[in-house]
Amino acid sequence: MIVSSAPFRVSFAGGGSDIASYYRRQAGAVLSCAIAKYSFVIVHNYFNENKYHLKYTRTELADTLEEIAHPLLREALRMHRVEPGIEVASVADIPSGTGLGSSSSFSVALINALYAHKSRFASKDQLAEEACKLEIDILKEPIGKQDQYAAAHGGLNFIEFNSNGGVNVQPVVLGSEKMAELESNILLFFTGSQRDTRSVLSTQVQAMEADEEKFRTVERMVQLSYEMRDILMAGDLSAFGEALHRGWMMKRSLTSKITNNAIDEFYEAARAAGAIGGKLAGAGGGGFLVLYCPKDRQEKVRQALSQLKEIEFRFDWSGARIAFAQ
After folding, report:
1. At 184, is the pLDDT very low, low, confident or very high (cuts 50, 70, 90)?
2. What sections of 65-184 are H helices per DSSP?
3. What does the alpha-carbon distance between residue 30 and residue 33 come to, in Å, rounded to a whole number?
4. Between 283 and 90, where is the model more confident?
5. Fold category of 176-311 in CATH
6. DSSP states along 156-220
7. Closest CA to 172 of 124, 123, 235
8. Which of 8, 9, 18, 10 is closest to 222 using CA atoms?
9. CB within 8 A of 169, min separation 6: which ones?
10. Is 6 exposed, middle or buried (0-12, 13-18, 19+ CB in 10 A)?
11. CB 149 within 8 A of CB 317
């Protein structure tokens, strides 16, 4: 039996520049962190050697790959040439559609589990590259590359996307005290709504391709990601929070699907209560509200957002890993 896990992620700046329609014109960059919430995949031999037994939000029992309904499972099994006689089960700490990169975390955990099932090792870059191939090239999902690399590598990273398709992952190194302060000053609140990531991202891509000013907005968001990396490395966490706010103002201007009146009210209430800055995690439209708030103001922010569910926030430093193998 193999138990594989990969973390979810929170993106701070540069989202949208990891999509091919942007980085093929101009290099993209994002600042993000992996968090200690995970997608888990369990793989082991199935007693019926003629079946694929798959368990997620539903259960599938298939004779052939073509009969498998779940696209990621079907194509990952095909990619790794897995024959019938295998059981794959998945669970996650947080549901999909909440802006934390759950689909890519699942893809990375699944690919790692399939390698381990064959007693083979795959590097973190290899896991991310294969997850990108699976989701973007094979399944034609309208998504970028940041989630796969964040899930594979873990940690706090500055990730660059080159015009030739190459990706550079650069860990952001802070002193232990500053890293702990940063971690403790970030709050996550679930807005209560899940959304179709594909729809939101497709709208953003169309806007960026059709409107040069929208493309320039993403360009400014990329520049901000470099600025925020440097701010963190200088240890100016208040400036980081202020930059997070500027980035959200840029992002919300891309399309009307990124935010709504309810989300804007939550965000303004949090700012009025003491949060310096924040944004919606992921593409927008719902999911998690990410806030930067100093410790001494957090209780007021929690009171202002009392109708929302807060999720414990910690960084993940392991990335994709095999938690159990027997």
Report:
1. very high
2. 71-79, 102-117, 124-132, 146-153, 176-184
3. 10
4. 90
5. Alpha-Beta Plaits (3.30.70)
6. EEEEEE-TTS-EEEEEPP--HHHHHHHHHTEEEEE-S----HHHHHHHHHHHHHH-HHHHHHHHH
7. 235
8. 18
9. 125, 149, 153, 157, 158, 159
10. buried
11. no
Q: Which tokens belong to 183? A: 């971690």
What would the two tokens of residue 250 be? 């840029």
Residue 61: its H or E element? strand 59-62
Cβ proximity of 217 and 250 under 8 Å: yes
b/e burial code for range 35-63 (CB count within 10 A of at least 16 → b): bebbbbbbbbebeeeebbbbebeeebebe
CA 31 – CA 10 distance, rounded (Å) = 9
Nearest to 24 by CA among 172, 218, 157: 218
User: What type of residue is 292?
Assistant: Y
Give residue limits of the domains in the chain: 2-173+316-325, 176-311
Check: CB of residue 315 under 8 Å from CB of residue 156. yes
| Residue 306 pLDDT exceeds 60 | yes
| Residue 36 CA to its chain's centroid (Å) | 12
In the predicted structure, residue 195 carries a pLDDT above the cut 70: no
Of the pLDDT bands very low, low, confident and very high (cuts 50, 70, 90), residue 22 is very high
- How confident is the model over 266-305, as pLDDT tens digits? 999 999 999 999 999 876 667 899 999 999 999 999 999 9
Report the distance separating Cα 183 and Cα 4, nearest Å: 25
Q: Which of 206, 298, 186 is nearest to 256 (CA)?
A: 206
- What does the alpha-carbon distance between residue 75 and residue 56 come to, in Å, rounded to a whole number? 16
C-alpha distances in Å from residue 325, one per residue of 48, 114, 319, 320: 21, 12, 17, 14
Answer CATH for 2-173+316-325 from 2.40.10.10, 3.30.230.10, 3.30.70.1250, 3.30.300.30? 3.30.230.10
Tell how strand 186-190 and strand 167-171 pair up.
Answer: unpaired
